[in-house]
Write a structure and sequence with these properties.
The protein is an alpha/beta fold. The chain is built from 16 helices and 55 strands. Among the domains are: 125 residues, Phosphorylase Kinase, domain 1 (2-Layer Sandwich); 191 residues, Transferase(Phosphotransferase) domain 1 (Transferase(Phosphotransferase), domain 1, Orthogonal Bundle). A hairpin with a 2-residue loop joins strand 54 and strand 55. The chain is flat, with a radius of gyration of 34 Å. Bound molecules: 2-acetamido-2-deoxy-beta-D-glucopyranose (3 copies). The site of one 2-acetamido-2-deoxy-beta-D-glucopyranose has 5 residues, from loops.
Length: 982
C-alpha cells in the first residue's frame, strides 16, 4: 500500500465520517421528514394549495419545499397561500436542517408554545399577517436568525424583548402591528448592530427614543410610527446616514428637527406626520433624494424651502394642517412621476404650481383652506390621471379650463368657496368617474348643461349659492346613484323635473331660493330613501301632494311659495314651525301655526277667499275620494281583518303543519300586529293548541308607487320591477330548504293574487337590537352574549358553507338576529338573501342592499358583494354585543361609525377594555376584548383580510368562557354537511 493510497483511504474514510456526521443527526430520514410535513399539513383546515403534499410525490418536489443536495428540507416557502388552521410548529422544527420558514400572510391561528429549542439552524422566520393568539415564545434558541417578521401576526401580551439580546445576526426585525403590553423603548434592540431594517410601528412603545439609536449605524429603514413616543427626535438619529426610510408618524414627538438631520442625504421616505413638531424645514433642504415627504398634522411654520422645487425624485408631498406661509416653489413636483400634493389647511399664498402633472401620474391635488390666488392652471385640463381635485376655500378666480370637467378618472371636483366664474361646460357629460361635484359659493352662471344627466356615477351635486339660471335638466332622473342634490340659492326657473322621482338613491333635495314654478311633482313620494326636502323660497303653486306622506322625512321645508290647500296631517308631524309659512293658501287641521281648513272662516267677507276655500275644499274632497278609491282598490283591506279571506289561497308547506291556513288568516287582526318589517307587517298568531307563530304579510306591489317600501332604519332600496317577485319566490324556496337551529324556521308560505304570507316560528324575545338598545333593563351577562355571538356565527357559517348552494344574507344586523325563549339566536329576514352561483352573486340589477352602519366599505365603490361583506356586517354585530353601542351614533363623531371608533381606540389592552359595555362583569372583560379583536378582523377594510365565517366560528370557540383547552381543528368541512340534508 503506497502512502498515497493510504492517505487516499484515510481521506475517503474521513469523508465518510464527515458525511455520516452531517447526515446522521440531521438525518431525520426521508420518511421521517415526510411524516413531519404531512403532520403539519394535517393540522391545516384549508390546504388546497398543498395537493402535491402526498405519499407519492418526493418531498423535495412538494410545493414550497426546498431541499439541499442531501435531500434534507431546508426551506418552507408558503406565504400567502390562504392556509388556515393551527400551526404545528414543533413538527417543522423537527426538520433538523430547516433554515427558512416562510408562512406570512395566511390565516393561521392558535398559540405557539416553546417549541423553538430544536429550531437552532433557523435563519429566516416569517409568520407575519396571521391570526395567532397568545404570547410570542422565547426566541433565544434561534441564534442563527437573520430575518424575523412577526408584524400583524395576532400575538399579544408580553413580548420577550430580553430573548433578542444575543441574536446579533439579525438584519431584518419586524414586530409591529401587534398589541403587545406597553414597554419603554426595548434597549436589547440597541445591541443588534447588524440591523438594516427595524419595524416597530404600532406595538405600544412609550417614552423617548433613546439617544443610542445612533449605534445602529447600518439601519436603512427605521419605523417607529403609531406608538406613544414623546420628547424630541434625538440627535442620535442624525448618525444614521444610511437611512432611506424614516417613519415616526402618529406619536407625541415635540420640539424642532435636530441639527444635523440634513446629514441623512440618502433619505427617500420621510414621515413624521401627526406629532407636535414645530419649527421650520431648513434642515430638510439638502435631502434631495426625497421621494415621499409627509409632514402633515404638526405645528411646523415658516416657508416651504425653494430647494424643494428642484427635488428630482419627489412624488408625494403632504403638509396639511400646519402653519406654513408663503408660496409653494413653482417647479415643485415637475420632475419625477409626481403623485400627490396635499397642502390643505395652511396659510399659503400665491398661485397653484402649474407642472405637478407633467409626467402624467398625478392623482390628487388638494389645497383646501389656504389663501391661494389666481386661476386653476390650464395644464391640469389634460391631467387624465387626476382622481381628486380639491381647492375649496381659497381666493381662486377666473374660468375653469373646460377639459377639467371631462377628465376620465376624476371622482371629485371641489371648487367651493372661491371666486370662480363662467359655465359648467357641456363636456361634463363625458366625465366617466365623477361622483362628487362641489361648486357651491362661487360666481358660476349660465345653464346647467343637460349632458350632466349622462354622468351616471354622480352621487352628490352641490351647486348652491351661485348664479346658475335656466331650467333644471329634465333628465336628471337618469342619475340613479344621486344621493344629494343641492341647487339652492341660484336662479333656476321652470318646473321641478318629474324625472327626479327616478333618482332612487336620493336622500336630500334642496332646491330652495330659486325661481321654480309649477306644482310639486306627486311622484316625489316614490323616493323611499328621501330624508330631507327643501323647496322653500320658490314660486311653486298647487296643493301639497298627498304622496309625500309616504316619505320618511326628517326635514321638510315648503315655506315661502304659493301653495294652497290642506297640509296632509302626517307632514305636520315632521314639520318645524316654519315649514309651511309664507304660503297664503295653506291650511291645516289642528295646527298651531296654520289656519284651520274648515269650517270656512266667515269673518272675511272677501269673495276671493271664499272662492279659494271652495276650490281648496273641492280639491281636498276630490283628492280624498281618489285616494280612498285607490286605497280600496289596491289594498282590499277592511279595518278588522287585513286579509280578504274570500280569495283563493295557495299554500306551500316546508315543515309538517299542525294548523290550517284558515286558522292563520282568522288571526291577522290589527290588534295582533307586532311590527312592521322590511317588506311587510308582522303579526303574532296564537293557535288553538297554544303554539305561537309569527306571520309576515307582504304585498306583491305597494299601493301607489308600485315599489317596495324599505324599513325605517334600512337603507335598502329595492327594485321596482314586479318581475322581482319571481326571484323572491325562488328565494323563499331556497330559504325553505334551510334547516339549522340558528336559522329561523319558515313553516309555510300562503299566497294569493296580490299578497303573500310567510309563517315563521315565533321568537318571544324579539331581536338582539331590541335587547341591546331598547330593553336595556334586561341585563345581558357575558355568557348570554357569547352564546348569541356563537349561535349567530354558526347560522351564518351554515349559509355560507353548509349547503350545496352557498347563500349570502346581505342584511346581517342585530335587528335580524331574533332570540327565542332561551335567548338562543336565529337569523331572520332573508328578503335580500342571494344564492351564490359559481362564485358570483346572482344579481342582474344593481341593488344597494343592507343597512347603514353595517354595510362593508367595498359596497361604496363596487357592487362586488361576496360573503366577506356579510362577515363585515357580522363584525359590526360583534362590536354591538361587546360595547353595547349602536353601529351609528353621534358620539363617534360626524360620518364615523362603530367600526371607525373601535379600530381607532384599540391601541392598548387598557383602551380595549374601556370599550367594553359597563354592564359586562369585570372578570368577563378580558374575554370580551378577545371577541372585540375578532370583530376587528371581520371589519378589515380589505375583504381579503377578513376571515371566512368558518374561521370566525373557530376563533369564537377558542374564546369560549371558562375553556382552557386548545382546540385543534381536524378536518373541518365534512361534519355539518349532513345538516343541510336534514
Ligand atoms: C421532481 O420532479 C421532477 C419533474 O417532475 C422529476 O424530474 C424529479 O425527478 C423529481 N425529483 C425527485 C427528487 O423526485
Ligand atoms: C427536540 O428534538 C429532540 C431530539 O430529536 C426531541 O427528543 C425533542 O422532543 C424535541 N423537542 C421539541 C420541543 O420538539
Ligand atoms: C446572552 O449571552 C450572554 C453571554 O453568553 C448570556 O449570559 C445571556 O444569558 C444570554 N441571554 C439570553 C437571553 O439568552
Amino acid at each position: 500500500m503506497s502512502s498515497d493510497s493510504f492517505s487516499g483511504h484515510l481521506r475517503s474514510a474521513l469523508f465518510l465520517c464527515t458525511l455520516l456526521f452531517f447526515l446522521n443527526p440531521s438525518s431525520s430520514s426521508n420518511s421521517d421528514q415526510r411524516q413531519f410535513l404531512l403532520k403539519f399539513k394535517s393540522t391545516l383546515a384549508n390546504s388546497n394549495s398543498l395537493n402535491t403534499w402526498n405519499e407519492e410525490t418526493h418531498i423535495c418536489n412538494f410545493t414550497g419545499i426546498v431541499c439541499n443536495s442531501d435531500k434534507a428540507v431546508t426551506e418552507i416557502n408558503l406565504s400567502n397561500q390562504k392556509l388556515a388552521g393551527v400551526l404545528a410548529f414543533d413538527s417543522l422544527c423537527s426538520l433538523n436542517s430547516i433554515q427558512k420558514i416562510s408562512l406570512g400572510s395566511n390565516l393561521l391561528h392558535g398559540t405557539i408554545s416553546n417549541h423553538l429549542s430544536n429550531c437552532t439552524s433557523l435563519e429566516y422566520l416569517d409568520l407575519a399577517e396571521n391570526f395567532f393568539s397568545g404570547e410570542v415564545p422565547d426566541l433565544s434558541p434561534l441564534t442563527q436568525l437573520k430575518y424575523l417578521s412577526l408584524n400583524l401576526s395576532g400575538f399579544s401580551g408580553r413580548f420577550p424583548w430580553k430573548s433578542l439580546e444575543n441574536l446579533t445576526g439579525l438584519r431584518f426585525l419586524s414586530l409591529g402591528d401587534n398589541p403587545f403590553d406597553k414597554t419603554p423603548f426595548p434597549l436589547e434592540i440597541l445591541k443588534l448592530y447588524n440591523l438594516s431594517n427595524l419595524y416597530l410601528t404600532n406595538c405600544t412603545i412609550e417614552g423617548q427614543i433613546p439617544e443610542a439609536i445612533g449605534n445602529l449605524s447600518l439601519l436603512e429603514s427605521l419605523q417607529l410610527s403609531d406608538n406613544y413616543l414623546v420628547g424630541e427626535i434625538p440627535v442620535g438619529v442624525t448618525k444614521l446616514t444610511k437611512l432611506q426610510m424614516l417613519e415616526l408618524y402618529n406619536n407625541e414627538l415635540s420640539g424642532v428637527f435636530p441639527t444635523g438631520l440634513s446629514n441623512l442625504v440618502n433619505l427617500q421616505q420621510f414621515d413624521v406626520s401627526t406629532n407636535s413638531l414645530v419649527g421650520d424645514l431648513s434642515e430638510l433642504k439638502n435631502l434631495t433624494r426625497l421621494e415621499s415627504l409627509q409632514l402633515f398634522e404638526n405645528g411646523f411654520s415658516g416657508t416651504i424651502p425653494q430647494e424643494f422645487g428642484e427635488f428630482k425624485f419627489l412624488k408625494q408631498f403632504s403638509i396639511y394642517t400646519n402653519k406654513f406661509t408663503g408660496e409653494l416653489p413653482a417647479r415643485i413636483g415637475s420632475w419625477a412621476e409626481f403623485e400627490f400634493i396635499d397642502a390643505s389647511e395652511n396659510y399659503l399664498t400665491g398661485s397653484i404650481p402649474p407642472d405637478m402633472c407633467k409626467m402624467g401620474k398625478m392623482e390628487k391635488l388638494l389645497m383646501i383652506d389656504n389663501n391661494f390666488t389666481g386661476g386653476l392652471p390650464e395644464n391640469y385640463a389634460s391631467c387624465e390621471s387626476l382622481v381628486r381635485l380639491r381647492v375649496s376655500n381659497n381666493s381662486l378666480s377666473g374660468q375653469v379650463p373646460d377639459g377639467i370637467w371631462s377628465l376620465p378618472n376624476l371622482g371629485m371636483i371641489d371648487l367651493e368657496m372661491n371666486q370662480f366664474e363662467g359655465q359648467v361646460a357641456a363636456n361634463v357629460g363625458q366625465a366617466k368617474s365623477l361622483t362628487q361635484l362641489f361648486l357651491a359659493n362661487n360666481g358660476f352662471s349660465g345653464e346647467l348643461p343637460v349632458e350632466i344627466s349622462n354622468v351616471s356615477s354622480l352621487v352628490e351635486i352641490e351647486l348652491n349659492s351661485n348664479r346658475f339660471s335656466g331650467q333644471i335638466p329634465a333628465n336628471l332622473g337618469e342619475l340613479q346613484k344621486l344621493s344629494n342634490l343641492y341647487l339652492q340659492d341660484n336662479m333656476f326657473s321652470g318646473v321641478i323635473p318629474e324625472s327626479l322621482s327616478s333618482c332612487v338613491s336620493l336622500n336630500e333635495i334642496n332646491l330652495g331660493g330659486n325661481l321654480l314654478s309649477g306644482q310639486i311633482p306627486a311622484s316625489l313620494g316614490a323616493l323611499v330613501g328621501l330624508n330631507s326636502l327643501n323647496l322653500s323660497g320658490n314660486k311653486l303653486s298647487g296643493v301639497i301632494p298627498a304622496s309625500l306622506t309616504s316619505l320618511k322625512l326628517t326635514l321638510i321645508d315648503l315655506s315661502n311659495n304659493m301653495l294652497i290647500g290642506r297640509v296632509p296631517q302626517p307632514l305636520l308631524l315632521v314639520a318645524y314651525n316654519g315649514s309651511f309659512a309664507g304660503n297664503q293658501g295653506l291650511c291645516a287641521d289642528r295646527s298651531k301655526v296654520l289656519p284651520e281648513c274648515s269650517p270656512v272662516s266667515h269673518k272675511s267677507g272677501n269673495v276671493k277667499v271664499s272662492v279659494y276655500c271652495f276650490i281648496v275644499g273641492a280639491l281636498v274632497f276630490l283628492l280624498s275620494l281618489v285616494s280612498y278609491l285607490l286605497f280600496v282598490k289596491m289594498s282590499k283591506i277592511d279595518r278588522k281583518s287585513p286579509i280578504d279571506r274570500g280569495g283563493s289561497w295557495n299554500v306551500k308547506q316546508f315543515h309538517v303543519l299542525k294548523f290550517s291556513e284558515d286558522e292563520i288568516l282568522r288571526s291577522l287582526k290589527q290588534e295582533n300586529m307586532i311590527g312592521k318589517g322590511g317588506s311587510g307587517d308582522v303579526y303574532k298568531v296564537v293557535l288553538g293548541c297554544g303554539e305561537q307563530l309569527a306571520v309576515k304579510h307582504m304585498w306583491k306591489s305597494e299601493p301607489e308607487s308600485g315599489s317596495w317600501r324599505s324599513s325605517r332604519s334600512s337603507a335598502a332600496i329595492l327594485p321596482k320591477e314586479k318581475t322581482q317577485w319571481r326571484e323572491y319566490e325562488a328565494e323563499v324556496a331556497a330559504l325553505s330548504s334551510l334547516r339549522h337551529m340558528n336559522v329561523v324556521k319558515l313553516y309555510c308560505s300562503i299566497s294569493s293574487e296580490d299578497s303573500n304570507l310567510l309563517v315563521y316560528e315565533y321568537m318571544p324575545n324579539g331581536s338582539l337590537w331590541d335587547q341591546l338598545h331598547i330593553n336595556k333593563k334586561i341585563k345581558m351577562d357575558w355568557s348570554v352574549r357569547y352564546e348569541i355571538a356563537m349561535g349567530a356565527a354558526k347560522g351564518l357559517e351554515y349559509l355560507h358553507h353548509g349547503c350545496e348552494r352557498p347563500m349570502l344574507h346581505r342584511d346581517v344586523k342585530s335587528s335580524n338576529i331574533l332570540l327565542d325563549d332561551e335567548m338562543k339566536p336565529k337569523l331572520a329576514d332573508f328578503g335580500l338573501a342571494k344564492i351564490v352561483q359559481t362564485g358570483k352573486v346572482m344579481d342582474s340589477t344593481h341593488i344597494i342592499a343592507g343597512t347603514h352602519g353595517y354595510i362593508a366599505p367595498e359596497y361604496g365603490y363596487t357592487y362586488n358583494v361576496t360573503e366577506k361583506s356579510d362577515i363585515y356586517s357580522f363584525g359590526v354585530v360583534l362590536m354591538e354585543l361587546v360595547t353595547g353601542k349602536k353601529p351609528v351614533d353621534p358620539e363617534f363623531g360626524e360620518y364615523k361609525d362603530i367600526v371607525f371608533w373601535v379600530h381607532n381606540e384599540m391601541r392598548t389592552k387598557e383602551e380595549l377594555i374601556s370599550l367594553v359595555d359597563t354592564s359586562i362583569s369585570k372578570d368577563a372583560k378580558e374575554e370580551a376584548v378577545k371577541m372585540l379583536s375578532i370583530a376587528v378582523h371581520c371589519t378589515m377594510k380589505l375583504p381579503a383580510l377578513r376571515p371566512s365565517m368558518r374561521m370566525v366560528v373557530k376563533m369564537l370557540e377558542e374564546i369560549e368562557p371558562n375553556s382552557f383547552t386548545d382546540i385543534v381543528i381536524e378536518k373541518v368541512g365534512e361534519t355539518d354537511v349532513s345538516l343541510c340534508k336534514n
